[in-house]
Amino acid sequence: MSDADTSRRTFMTLAAAAPAAFATGSAASAQTAPFGPTALPGVGRAAVITGSSRGIGAATAKRLARDGFAVTVNYLTNRDLADRVVADIKAAGGRAIVRQADVADPAAVKALFDAHDQAFGGVDVVVNNAGIMNVGPFAQMTDAAFDRMMATNVKGSFNVLREAARRTRDGGRIISLSSSIIKTPPPATGAYAATKSAQMLFSSVLAKELAGRNISVNAVAPGAVDTQLLRQHGEAALRGIPEQTPLGRLGLPEDIAGVIALLCSRDGAWIDAQTVFANGGLG
Ligand SMILES: NC(=O)c1ccc[n+]([C@@H]2O[C@H](COP(=O)([O-])OP(=O)(O)OC[C@H]3O[C@@H](n4cnc5c(N)ncnc54)[C@H](OP(=O)(O)O)[C@@H]3O)[C@@H](O)[C@H]2O)c1
C-alpha cells in the first residue's frame, strides 16, 4: 500500500470516528446530539452571548437560536432591545432568556452564567462579544474613557473567558470578538486596538489550556460593521469604507454572525486557537 493510500485510510478512519470525538464528557451532555453536518448543530445545546441586545451580538443570538441553540441574551442598559431579541427568537420557535450583567463585574458575570446554567442545564458555546469603542489620540484620550474601555473589553473579556473556561462542556466552542483594526490601526485607535489584540492572545492561550477537551477557542476579527458602535462616532466613521472594501460594502451584523455560526458548526470544528478575519477584504 502506498503512503498516500495509508494516509487516506487513516483519514477515513478518523472521519468515521469523528462523531464520537464530538461527544461531550458530562453525563448530561453525553446524551445530546454531536455537532453534525446534517442535524442542526445546536440541537440540545446552549449558548451565552454577551452584549446581545443589539449589533453583532443580537444577530449572533438570533442566528445561533435558529441553528438550534438555547441562548442567553445579555445586555448592559438596553433592556427593551434585549427583550425584543428574545421575543424574536421565541417567535421563530427558539429558546432564550435575558439577563442584565456588566461584564466588567466578575460577580455579575458569574451570576449571568449561573442563570444560564439554571435555565438550560449547562453551556456549550460562549460568545465573548460585549465591547465598547472609545477613540481619540493619545494626547487627548481621558483616563475615564481609557479605563472604562479596558474594564469592559479586557477585564470584561477575562471575566467572561474565566467562566467559560470553568463551565463550557466538552466539545464546546468559545469565541471572542477581536477586530481587523489590530492589523493596521489608524491614528486615534491605539487603546481600542490594544483591547482587541487582547482577544487574539486570550483565545490563543485558552485554546492550549483547554487542550484534550475538544473545546475550540477562537477570535473573530470583523472589519467595519454597520452598528451603533461605529455610528456613535458619526457618519464620518463610515465614510469611504464601502469604496475601499474589495467586496464593495459595509459589513452587516449577520455577516459576522455567520462566521461565528460556522465556528459553532461541525464544519468549523478543526479551527482552533485562530483569529478569523472577516472584513470583505479590507484589512
Ligand atoms: N461594529 C464594528 O465595526 C466592529 C468591528 C470589529 C469588532 N467589533 C466588536 O464586536 C463586538 C460587538 O460590537 P457591535 O458593533 O455589535 O457593538 P454595539 O452595537 O455597540 O453593541 C454592543 C453590545 O455590548 C453591550 N455592552 C456594552 N458594554 C457592556 C458591558 N459592560 N457589559 C455587558 N454588555 C455590554 C451592549 O449592551 P447595551 O445595548 O445594553 O448597551 C450591546 O449589546 C465588540 O466587542 C466590538 O469591539 C465591532
Automatic annotation (TrEMBL):
Q: Where are the transmembrane segments?
A: none
PROSITE patterns documented for this protein: TAT
Q: Does the keyword Signal apply?
A: yes
EC number(s) stated in the UniProt entry for this protein: 1.1.1.175
**Highest taxon, organism lineage:** Bacteria
Which family, according to UniProt? Belongs to the short-chain dehydrogenases/reductases (SDR) family.
Quote the protein name from its UniProt record: D-xylose 1-dehydrogenase
Report the source organism: Caulobacter segnis (strain ATCC 21756 / DSM 7131 / JCM 7823 / NBRC 15250 / LMG 17158 / TK0059) (Mycoplana segnis)
